[in-house]
Design a protein that fits this description.
82% of the residues lie in helices and 0% in strands. The chain has 17 helices and no strands. α15 crosses α17.
């Protein structure tokens, strides 16, 4: 009875937090639609390119350490947050230096105070987000969702107002994209008070966290590969088109990733990927596939044509293909989270090293020869190959 009540409470908590997250994603999507329909596409493409750079540099936040923090807290232990945050902040200084170096090379005519401003914002944007893992580990899911919603709301409202007042200035757009997240990161990080403990108590978490962060660096960097290749091969306008094709599918995938991440404290308690879990996984994949097929060819075409300008209609079919393939991505997300929570570097590293190599081979060849359709094909083919790869790793290491 007690276990049932705990499970019901946790499911209720997740449902509420995901409802808030859905509102956040809807608002984010509406803001994206407004920008691409009202701004010069070349300007938007250049802005998206810099967001890809930021996403690339987010690797310096040490995601592996943050996963270790969630597992550490979920077992009822305390004291690791301060150390995890310090490591993340120190590592993120490297990402900030890389960003500002690239910014100075791209905009050498800007005033020195702008260089200092953007260095500081990127430093806090990347380096002080460990509090989110602390909240997840402690199951403060509703608080986390509300803060994320407020951040997205303020950021996108500011960007929309810039468009409304015809301020098409890159520095203003970049500033507001970074500002609110950085401010919330600073305020919440330093509001967390945690007792210090003997550092030797979490050496295992630090060692695995650093190793998995290093392993993560390569695969995570290629997530932006398609966008960077499209930008350099075909230019900023085609990058906007790729973002339009993938925006809604990525939003759905991100919600599913969030469900898996919120459930990380529960996933971390699983010791083996047994037949019972496999059965549930296959059922989830089947239900997801049926839903995506029905949604892709009924509601989604009407939605796509309502929100986007007519000049983007030719990309609907490519977007539908990406949307349906999400069921494969979702399966991989859950299993990769499972690998990470086991603190077993062999299975996790095998997944995150082999998979990106496949992606690089597909992306370079398909995008170079087929441009935008090639980018879509590389995503779908990679998801298919990755599905079989991870299924093999489950059988090899976790049965």
């Amino acid at each position: 009875m007690l276990n049932y009540l705990k499970r019901s409470k946790w499911l209720n908590l997740m449902a509420k937090s995901l409802s808030i997250k859905a509102v956040e994603r809807i608002f984010n999507l509406l803001a994206f639609i407004y920008l691409v329909n009202n701004l010069d596409l070349k300007f938007v493409g250049n802005f998206f390119f810099w967001i890809s750079i930021l996403n690339l540099l987010s690797l310096f936040s040490l995601n592996g350490i943050q996963s270790s923090l969630i597992k550490y807290i979920s077992t009822g232990k305390i004291g690791f947050f301060k150390k995890a945050n310090t490591l993340s902040l120190a590592s993120s200084s490297i990402g900030s230096i890389i960003f500002i170096s690239f910014y100075i090379i791209s905009f050498p005519q800007n005033d020195p105070w702008k260089f200092l401003l953007f260095f500081s914002l990127v430093f806090f944007f990347l380096g002080l987000n460990t509090w989110k893992s602390y909240y997840i580990g402690n199951e403060y899911l509703i608080k986390l969702s509300i803060i994320n919603l407020l951040t997205v709301f303020l950021t996108n409202i500011s960007l929309i107002l810039l468009v409304r007042f015809n301020i098409e200035n890159f520095d203003y757009f970049l500033f507001f994209y970074l500002f609110y997240t950085s401010i919330f990161n600073i305020i919440i990080t330093y509001s967390i008070k945690e007792k210090s403990v003997n550092k030797k108590k979490f050496q295992k978490e630090i060692i695995f966290g650093i190793k998995s962060s290093v392993v993560d660096f390569f695969p995570s960097s290629i997530k932006e590969l398609d966008r960077i290749l499209i930008f350099n091969i075909t230019g900023p306008i085609m990058l906007v088109n790729l973002n339009i094709i993938t925006k809604f599918p990525d939003a759905l995938k991100e919600i599913f990733r969030l469900i898996a991440r919120y459930a990380l404290s529960k996933i971390s308690l699983i010791k083996n990927y047994d037949k019972k879990i496999q059965k549930k996984s296959k059922l989830l994949n089947l239900v997801t596939l049926i839903f995506l097929i029905l949604f892709s060819f009924t509601i989604y075409p009407f939605f796509f044509k309502i929100v986007f300008d007519e000049k983007f209609f030719e990309y609907l079919f490519l977007s539908q293909i990406i949307l349906i393939s999400i069921f494969l991505a979702n399966d991989s997300i859950i299993k990769n989270f499972f690998f990470k929570t086991q603190l077993n570097i062999r299975s996790y590293s095998s997944s995150v090293i082999i998979s990106p190599i496949l992606k690089i081979i597909l992306s370079f060849n398909l995008i170079y020869f087929y441009e935008l359709p090639g980018a879509v094909a590389s995503v779908v083919l990679h998801r298919i190959l990755n599905y079989f790869l991870i299924s093999y790793l489950i059988k090899k290491f976790h049965k």
